[in-house]
From TrEMBL:
<protein>
    <recommendedName>
        <fullName>Small EDRK-rich factor-like N-terminal domain-containing protein</fullName>
    </recommendedName>
</protein>
<feature type="region of interest" description="Disordered">
    <location>
        <begin position="1"/>
        <end position="66"/>
    </location>
</feature>
<feature type="compositionally biased region" description="Low complexity">
    <location>
        <begin position="40"/>
        <end position="50"/>
    </location>
</feature>
<feature type="domain" description="Small EDRK-rich factor-like N-terminal">
    <location>
        <begin position="1"/>
        <end position="36"/>
    </location>
</feature>
<dbReference type="InterPro" id="IPR007513">
    <property type="entry name" value="SERF-like_N"/>
</dbReference>
<dbReference type="Pfam" id="PF04419">
    <property type="entry name" value="SERF-like_N"/>
</dbReference>
<feature type="compositionally biased region" description="Basic and acidic residues">
    <location>
        <begin position="1"/>
        <end position="20"/>
    </location>
</feature>
<feature type="compositionally biased region" description="Low complexity">
    <location>
        <begin position="57"/>
        <end position="66"/>
    </location>
</feature>
């Protein structure tokens, strides 16, 4: 019967740990908006670079066919 008690104690401990981890977001609204804008700018730069690379590859392929 000691095993059942051990299981219950382990479950209680795990629930406490999971509740402590589930703290939520610590950023304020302004900080979150600023972070979102920063990430969006980085993604736009990556997309522009990818589009340029794709255009350059297409031009190279077209020049190679001639």
């Amino acid at each position: 019967m000691a095993r059942g008690n051990q299981r219950d104690k382990a479950r209680e401990k795990n629930q406490k740990e999971m509740a402590a981890k589930k703290g939520g977001n610590s950023m304020s609204g302004h900080e979150a908006a600023r972070e979102k804008d920063r990430v969006a700018a980085i993604m736009q730069q990556k997309q522009a670079a990818a589009a340029e690379k794709k255009a350059a590859d297409a031009a190279a392929a077209a020049a190679q066919k001639k």
